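Minutes, project huddle
Topic: does the predicted pose make sense with 5-O-phosphono-beta-D-ribofuranosylamine bound?
PN asked that the exact inputs be recorded in the minutes so nobody has to dig through chat later. Recorded below.
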Amino acid sequence: MKRLGILISGRGSNLEAIAGHIEAGSLDAEIAIVISNRPDARGLAIARQRGLPTVCIPSKGMDREAHDRLTFATLQNHQVDLVCLAGYMRLLSPWLIQQLPQRILNIHPSLLPAFPGLEAQRQAIEYGVKVTGCTVHFVDEHLDHGPIVAQTAIAVEDTDTPETLSARLLREEHRLYAEAIALVLSGRYRIEGRRVIRT
Ligand code: GRF
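Predicted holo structure (tokens), as shared on screen:
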């Protein structure tokens, strides 16, 4: 059974969705460890309620690489095969990314390369796009940038606010992340340049 390490900072709805897919049998994996960099993350409580192993490694005031070294040691202790960032609001150090080449996934609430960074849903509305979506990608050393594993598009309605758009996107995120994790765990892909090609 492949082992996931999930990194969170907040609400934890993607974590919850991944756990739900595993429980329902639609994702063949186990959550080996949930790591939060914030002690008050709601996702930590969700993980504990589900009986998942959790660790909090507070990052406040810590040097980025020093914090990532602690995170990496925890991932190694739990023999993690794949790391999933799920609302992890901290940039990873190049050091950590180099330890886990093509072993870290992220989900972002826009159709990358549009609207990287914070508040992607608000950025999409303010830009006036008619279609947006969500993206699961491998993490590389640039923000919201690595090879794209999967995307889903949805329409932006004239009446949308960042909140309504985020809510509709989240439903898609919760499905897309599990699918993308399953693909990566299956190993049935190769990466050519930026392209993730199914094999
Ligand atoms: C999601 O919108 C995700 O795409 C982004 O951060 C948010 C995390 O939400 N990276 P949650 O903590 O999984 O509920």
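Observations noted during the meeting:
- DSSP finds six helices and nine strands in the chain.
- The mean pLDDT is 98.
No decisions taken; revisit at the next huddle.
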